[in-house]
Amino acid sequence: MSLLPKIRTIFNSILCSSANIPLGLRATCGSVRGFSKEIDVTNPHVDDFPIELDENPYQKDKIQCILCKHSIEPDYKNVRLLSQFQSRYTGRIYGRHITGLCAKRQKQVENEIAKAQSMGLMPYTMKLIDYVNDPQLFDPDHPTRPHSH
Ligand SMILES: [Zn+2]
Fold first, then answer.
1. I need a labelling partner for 45 at 20 to 30 A (CA). Which of 15, 69, 141, 144 fits?
2. pLDDT tens digits, 124-141
3. How far is CA 75 from the centre of its chain?
4. How far away, in angstroms, is 133 Cα from ligand 1 center?
5. What is the 24 CA–ligand 1 centroid distance (Å)?
6. Distance 1 CA to ligand 1 centre (A)
7. Tens of pLDDT along 3-60?
8. How far is the CA of 56 from the centre of ligand 1 (A)?
9. What is the rounded distance in angstroms from the CA atom of residue 60 to the CA atom of residue 47?
């Protein structure tokens, strides 16, 4: 029996028997006390290594307005939807700070409401009585953003 493997075994037994081994040295031992599983430091494919993820789990959801989220195009014939963006008392079209729409959809909604009103499908000064009790997409009393003025 050669001397070198014997010295190595003795060195390993001393190193692994001590409880106060620094973590950096522990990895040099073939097996470490206190661990339920034996760690093979020579094999890089052990399941103790970090997992590669395809996508970032901390990625925030894309902020979208309710019309973009459901890909709804405002249309002058869809009076029921357009009535959601009109005040039931004055017929005023709610602003972006209340509706929470993006600039593009807000402009589309305003244009389509104007179109529907000019064609006589929607009233100017109030909300259509038929749609007053519809569930609301947003709360006009609690705007999503403070008003810019
Ligand atoms: Zn949008």
1. 15
2. 999 999 999 999 999 999
3. 29
4. 25
5. 53
6. 79
7. 666 666 665 555 544 455 555 544 444 444 555 556 666 766 666 777 888 888 898 8
8. 24
9. 28
* Collapsed DSSP state (helix, strand, coil) of residue 86: strand
Which DSSP state fits 5? H
What residue type is assigned to position 3 of the chain? L
Q: Name 86's Cβ contacts closer than 8 Å, sequence gap at least 6.
A: 92, 93, 94, 113, 122, 127
CA of 70 to the centre of ligand 1 (A): 9
Nearest to 74 by CA among 99, 47, 49: 99
Tokens of 88: 């039931």
**Ion ligand 1 contact residues with beta carbon within 5 A:** 65, 68, 102, 105
- Residue 74: left if φ>0, alpha if ψ -120 to 50, beta else—which one? beta
Cα–ligand 1 centroid distance for 147 (angstroms): 18
